Amino acid sequence: MAFNLTTKSDAMRVMGRTLYSYFKPELFDKVKNGEFFVEPDFKSNTIKLTKPAYAKFIRTETAQTGDIAKTGKARVVFEIPGHVTRTGRQAKLTIAETGIKVKDASALTKAASGVKKNYSAAEKTKMQEIASMWVIRRAIKDNVKYTSWADIEGDRKFPELLKIYPLLLDDDDKTIKDWRATFVAQNQKMLEVAAQSKYKEFKHYSRDGGFMDFISDLVKAKFKISQKDTWNPADIWLVENQRQVQKIIEDSVEGPLPTIDELNATMRQLWKQGRLIGISLKLVSGKVARWEPTNITGELYQGGNAFNFTLEKVKCVLSVNETDSKIRGAEPGQFSNKEGRLFIDEDKKPAFEWQIKSNAGAGTMSNLKYEPTQVTARKARLGKAPVKKVGGLFTHYRMDFENNYNNFPSTLEEYKKVKTKFEKYFSILVKNRVDTDGVTTVKQFNQNVTSSFRNDQLGVTTCKLMTVQFIAGLYTLTKKKRHEILTDMLFHALKKGYDYGPFGKLY
């Protein structure tokens, strides 16, 4: 039988209230839910503690018992009612004498809960999103409210959450602490949203499989949208009746020439009826989560007057590393990073920060990606603007930039052939007071490009030249067109507009 119970109420149930009470002051009062494991039938009479909890338990009892680490026997003394010595006195038994064993559960925890040393970024994202779906379901379906992380730990169903996201036990990981706070904030906000909305009872919650697979396959088959998130960034779906909702959606796109507008209109109607909602999940920056329904009413932008957006500042570091690199695996002499940054104000206040950089990891050549972050919620990126959509904007506004790394120099020899063109782009940056990290002359620029190419094994230099031309292209537009293209890019990143599906952003 697996060791999988992690709450004190479960331990008391399987051990019995009397025996549990004997252990409570010396053991259970010193550990938290999720820090111990017992069998559902308590057949082996064993309690296994996580490594930190066991270490704490050992330290507590060492003064009383000596070198417990060697013996593995904690001699905590309990008075057992009804158990008397031959002299007729009340007996005092140690943990070992009661037949109960307290052990280190390090190996067990990893085996039973799925804990391992290293998870990939994709694995962590999956755990975080499914965990978010769990706390949202507790709010909307079960009407359970959490005011703190302690409330979640004390939830009788906490073992379910721990199974989904076993890393939640790591008290030393700041990211884990951020997600603990996020789960509390998500739960509170969705309770509030549910109270104000006409939601029906959602019977189907989907992150993988189910409705998620259905809608992803449908937009791929009907509209050639290979990546669902470029149309609708919802990470999870809440569905009243999966079969009925899917039938309604299928019927809306029947016929030889269905349109994405028909699909979006149908899903907006299902949203308004409280039968289907998709949620885009982001890490919550503060104590209170925000909820922003998007593409529900047909309004493209709900953040105020879009014409009050302004490009306030641009940063494109063109210095090179002198002794060591800030980029993993890079050599001295390379550009310090492979990105550019755009700082956007709204109503004369900082609003968005764009990151313009390669869409691939170190050592891989790729095109640029365009990803904004809201200044007031920095932990939550808003999403990437679809590259094809942005490419269409470049064509529409006749901007001097094509996002194709194959058209840019990848070696110093190739650069020398087009050096004059990039000198012109660099001069545009200087003229418009772009922050280049102190590189202000064409001579300095060429020296740094040369140095970077000579030491570059990661494609950093090519990416930087792409960024230089992109920024120069922006500044060759009129101020009005520059505003318009950046606003359009922002809408695409936010997935706001008639081309995108309805969803709610929880951030």
Q: Terminal Cα separation, in Å? A: 40 Å
User: Share of helix among residues?
Assistant: 40-55%
What is the total domain count?
3
The order of strands across the largest sheet is: 6-7-8-14-9
The class by helix and strand makeup works out as alpha+beta
The total count of strands amounts to 14
Report the total helices.
Answer: 19
Apparent shape: globular
Q: What is the overall pLDDT average? A: 83
**Residue ranges: pLDDT <50 for 5 or more in a row?**
61-74, 80-89, 107-114, 301-307
Biggest sheet record: 5 strands, mixed
Using the CA coordinates, give the radius of gyration. Answer: 29 Å
Portion of residues in beta strands equals 5-15%
List key phrases describing it.
43% helix, 3 domains, five-stranded mixed β-sheet, 507 residues, alpha+beta, globular, four-stranded antiparallel β-sheet, 19 helices
Describe the model:
The chain has 507 residues and is an alpha+beta fold. The chain folds into three domains: 8-111, no CATH class; 116-196; 306-494, no CATH class. Helices cover 43% and strands 15% of the residues. The strands form four sheets. A five-stranded mixed sheet has the order 6-7-8-14-9, sandwiched between helices. Strands 10-11-12-13 form a four-stranded antiparallel sheet, with helices on one face. A three-stranded mixed sheet has the order 1-2-5. α7 (121-140) runs parallel beside α10 (174-196). It starts with 7 loop residues before the first helix and ends with a strand. Mean pLDDT is 83; it is low at 61-74, 80-89, 107-114 and 301-307.
